[in-house]
Structure formats: structure tokens, C-alpha cells
Amino acid sequence: MRIASKVANEGQAVVAELIASTELRMTRQRRAIMDALEGVDTHPGADEIHEMVRQEMPRISLGTIYRNLDVLAEHGLIRKLEFAGSQRRFDGKRHDHYHLRCTRCDKIEDAPVEPRGDIEEDLRKISDYDIVGHRLEFIGLCPKCKQNGKSSNGAEI
User: Fold this and answer.
1) Would the CATH topology of 1-92 be identical to that of 96-157?
2) CATH assignment, 96-157
3) pTM to 2 decimals?
4) Residues 6+ away with beta carbon under 8 Å from 65
5) Is 81:88 a contact under the CB 8 Å cutoff?
6) What's the N-to-C CA distance of the chain in angstroms?
7) Residues 16-28: pLDDT tens digits?
8) What is the Cα–Cα distance from 102 to 121, expressed in whole angstroms?
9) Which own/partner pairs from 1-5 qualify as long-range (CB within 8 Å, at least 24 positions apart)?
10) Chain CA centroid to CA 41, Å
11) Each residue of 97-143: pLDDT tens digit?
């Protein structure tokens, strides 16, 4: 099965323009990584991405995946998600959005709410910071873990 590029909310021309603006050489490996991320709604770690890309490129190494994930994230072509107490995950959606993270199974999903730009403006007014953006993670129990009846600290719900 080949990895299909499914670019949500962005046309192929927009993605091509974004890639061109970075002046980054788009290798087959980088394109395969981006296609893998754009084709899923999950937020996979490097190992999962490696398994997805290996379907198309069986000889690609995990080291190549790690190096290219870092390069793509540095150039803003993907997002690196680094949450406290969690392995690094990656997101192919470049638009601003929030995340939900299960404190029990570590599942990460996109939060179904729009980002609030007024938070940045409010903070700009009361701090000495030049705010350039924000990230927000909501934590709790996913429906599956909640159904299993125990909270993240083992207490009965």
C-alpha cells in the first residue's frame, strides 16, 4: 500500500508554495514523511512514522526519519509536539490548533475548538513579551480510558 498525500484544508499549490519558500531541497524521504503525516489524523512518534514510510521505502532507516523530522519541523513544514512527560510526536497540520492529550494512554487528538487570538493580545498588554504565538494542550481522559473506569492516577471514576 502506498502512502497517499491527503492535504486537509490546503491545496497542493499552497503546500508546493510553502515548500518553495523554505528553500529546502525536497528529497524523496522528506516527501514520504510529509505524505505519511498528512495522511493520518493521529499524531505519531518517529517509530510510527518510520513504519508508515517503510511501506513505500523499505530500506529507510530510523535515523533518517529522525533527522528529516527535525529538518521539516525547523522549516515549518510539520509541527513537532513536545509535551511534558510524553514522547515527541509530529503533526502534519500546519494551521494553528489545540490538542487534547489523554493522561492515561497518551493519545493526542486535535481539539475541536478554534484557537483564541485574544489570549495573545491580552498577554501582550500585561507583559513585556513580544508574543508570536501560543500552544495549548488540554489534558484528561479519552473516551476509551474513561470507559475503562479509572482515572490517570488509578482512582475509580
Assistant:
1) no
2) 3.30.1490.190
3) 0.71
4) 29, 33, 46, 49, 50, 53
5) yes
6) 42
7) 666 666 678 889 9
8) 29
9) 1/55, 2/55, 2/56, 3/32, 3/35, 3/36, 3/39, 3/52, 3/53, 3/55, 3/56, 4/35, 4/39, 5/34, 5/35, 5/38, 5/39
10) 9
11) 899 999 898 889 999 998 887 888 899 999 989 988 888 889 999 99
For residue 120, what are the β-bridge partners? none
- The CA distance from 156 to 3, in Å, is 41
Class of domain 1-92 (CATH, top level): mainly alpha
pLDDT tens readout for residues 30-60: 999 999 998 898 899 999 999 999 999 999 9
- Which residue do the cell numbers 510524553 mark? 86
Q: Find out whether 78 and 38 touch, Cβ atoms under 8 Å.
A: no
**Domain definitions of the chain by residue range:** 1-92, 96-157
Q: Which three cell numbers stand for residue 86?
A: 510524553
